[in-house]
Amino acid sequence: MAVPTFDAIVVGSGITGGWAAKELCERGLRTLVLEAGRPIDPARDYVEHVPPWEMKFRGLGDRKALERDQFIQRHCYACNEYSGKFFVNDRDNPYTFDPAKPFHWIRGRQVGGRSIMWGRQVYRWSDLDFEANARDGLGVDWPIRYADIAPWYDLVEQFIGISGEALGLPQLPDGKFLPPMALNCAETVVKEAIAKRFGGERVLTIGRCAVLSVAHGGRAACHYCGPCERGCITHSYFNSIGVTLPAARATGRLTLRPYSVVHSVMYDEKRDRAAGVRVVDAQTREPLEFRARVIFLCASTLESTRILLNSKSPRFPNGLANSSGELGRNLMDHVMGGGAGGIIPGMEDRTVHGRRPNGVYVPRFRNVTAPHSDFLRGYGFQGGASQAGWRRVDSLPGFGRALKEALGTPGPWRFGFYGFGECLPRPTNFVELDPNTVDAWGIPALRIHCEWSDNERKLLHDMSVTAAEMLEAAGAREVEPFVEQNPPGLTIHEMGTARMGRDPKTSVLNAHNQTHDVKNLFVTDGACMASSACQNPSITYMALTARAAAYAVDAMRRREL
Ligand SMILES: Cc1cc2nc3c(=O)[nH]c(=O)nc-3n(C[C@H](O)[C@H](O)[C@H](O)COP(=O)(O)OP(=O)(O)OC[C@H]3O[C@@H](n4cnc5c(N)ncnc54)[C@H](O)[C@@H]3O)c2cc1C
Ligand code: SF4
Question: Is the separation of the CB atoms in 531 and 332 below 8 Å?
Fold first, then answer.
């Protein structure tokens, strides 16, 4: 039987795969999207409006099943009885690590990938980030600067809809925003106190998030029901199922094939081009092949690198497009979990309506204008204020009717800052194929080597100090600084392992996410990142993907690919 042939193949249908599909289809290419997981039907699979009493375990989860099948995924806050079905089965999808150096790899395997469960926080990078490696002499210099990506941030933001407040800060460029969501009264108090005490150096704003504050692009405004990680039947937050894949489908050029686990990319040595991909059908286990003129790997940071490591040929015995030997190296994840909490006194007669699916943000302020003596780079805070409700049952005196009545009234306002810091690129954090482990489809699995360095530990400590300072400035009571010990991976911002760079000897991808070695092969997910900044990364992946797709189609038209 003839091998099915397309203009383009996209591997993965999550945040980046959806963007690649949309841009390639809209630019005229017949595009095959290969997705390892199952299809999703929002009407059946989304459960954001299901109350706990309709759940078998009342929302508390089946602990035995979690420990058996999702012993890694259960560490993620969003992997619960409702949305656990959007996270992978860890037994079918194994990977290995030294138990003394754990890495929690949190994954989704379905059409939509992790765009269904993601936290939707989106922050542009600035030249403070794109110039960081060159400035500090770490990793390799990014081959692009902010001006190269800015128009693509514009395109992505305007299409998916981002609510947020413009601040005019050089380290966190403003975007094309829909109206910001409102701060609550306690957040307003903290915002004003920070402005007064830190004179513009530290700033609190409402989170910039991919949730519609007004109707946009045929999608309804958010109705503040709250648990977005369970799906959204009104498509009010961005995921690829409700936004980019429908746009790709509307062109008539999209073929989406679920249950298609890509094993490797085929390399045609004579033409020096990627010829297509080898696939294992997830249901029948049948081996299949598909061919195309251009291939986009969007399977997520470590899965794309795994596919390349598994793509061996006489010319590339250590993985396709790996003449530099850099494939797998410089794995990063944000270090998270330094911060502080406290009670903002007063305002107990004031409350909020609905569940705003967003928090507050304090952009990076360390190493922005003046160098810090203890550490490189910086961090930002997420967090917010909420009013204690009936859950404070343990802390209230009394019992019976008096206790019930006390619980029915809102309690004090509790505020928390939670830091996310930059991870430095280091070659000693890397992945390789584990010679003894395969997944449920017989495909070699990864062995991950990753640990924090002193710089990340110092960021965590500083987060706890500066968060407490800001709460104290706001007159908070019972301020408690904290430093959590989270393993890498758990922040779910894994990046690097096929970095972009100017020199083919020290990087895998060029300035257009095209592999230096194989011209018709692109990697546009987080594998491409040369440094990690401290902002949530997915908007940057989306902008890079759209940019790379436009470049690839132009190159095809020029007959270079
Ligand atoms: C709970 C949670 C909160 C998050 N919050 C934020 C946030 O606030 N802001 C932010 O920027 N990021 C956030 N993230 C991270 C964000 O989800 C990822 O950065 C983003 O989804 C990465 O996009 P991707 O396309 O690379 O991967 P994914 O969205 O994971 O999609 C990859 C797809 O590829 C498929 N695939 C994998 N291997 C293969 C294969 N071999 N063959 C075929 N298909 C394959 C997978 O099944 C999947 O569908 C969060 C993630 C989670 C889970
Ligand atoms: S809070 Fe808004 S975006 Fe989230 S699921 Fe509900 S309606 Fe959708």
Answer: yes
User: Mean pLDDT across the stretch 24-39?
Assistant: 98
368 CB near ligand 2 (under 6 Å): no
Cβ-Cβ contacts under 8 Å for 51 (sequence gap 6 or more)? none
The response to whether residue 225 sits with its C-beta less than 6 Å from ligand 2 reads: yes
CATH numbers and ranges of domains, the chain: 1-49+95-161+238-330+440-450+496-561 (3.50.50.60)
For 176-234, the pLDDT digits (tens) are 999 999 999 999 999 999 999 998 999 999 999 999 999 999 999 999 999 999 999 99
Q: How far apart are CA 208 and CA 181, in angstroms?
A: 9
Return the number of other C-beta atoms located less than 10 Å from residue 427's C-beta: 12
pLDDT attached to residue 289: 98
What is the distance in A from the centroid of ligand 2 to the CA of 220? 10
The rounded Å distance from CA 152 to ligand 2 centre is 26
Residue 140, number of CB atoms within 10 A of its CB: 20
Q: Confidence class of residue 408 from pLDDT cuts 50, 70 and 90?
A: confident
Which residue's CA is the closest to the ligand 1 atom numbered 47?
Answer: 109
**What does the pLDDT look like over 426-441, one tens digit per residue?**
999 999 999 999 999 9
How far apart CA 227 and CA 235 sit, in angstroms, is 13
Reported as a single tens digit per residue, the pLDDT across 345-370 is 999 889 898 999 999 999 999 999 99
Segment 94-98 mean pLDDT: 98
The atom of ligand 2 lying closest to the CA of 211 is 3
Q: What is the pLDDT of residues 248-260, one digit of tens each?
A: 999 999 999 999 9
Q: Which of 225, 229, 356 most suits a substitution to test ligand 2, by most atoms within 8 Å of the C-beta?
A: 225
Ligand nearest to the CA of 106: 1
What's the pLDDT score for residue 390?
72
Q: Which helix (H) or strand (E) holds 430?
A: strand 430-438
Residue nearest (by alpha carbon) to ligand 2 atom 2: 222
Sign of CA dihedral 509, 512, 516, 517: positive
Residues 332 and 423: beta-carbon distance below 8 Å: yes
* Phi, psi values for residue 556, rounded to 5°: -65, -40
- Terminal C-alpha separation, the chain: 26
- pLDDT, tens digit, for every residue of 298-323? 999 999 999 999 999 999 999 999 99
The answer to whether 535 and 422 have CB atoms below 8 angstroms apart is no
The helix (run of H) or strand (run of E) holding residue 496 is none
pTM higher than the cut 0.85: yes
Mutation pick for ligand 1 pocket among 118, 288, 297, 536 (CB with most ligand atoms within 8 Å): 118
d(CA 469, CA 513): 41
User: Ligand 2 pocket check: which of 223, 229, 243, 353 to mutate, most ligand atoms within 8 Å of Cβ?
Assistant: 223
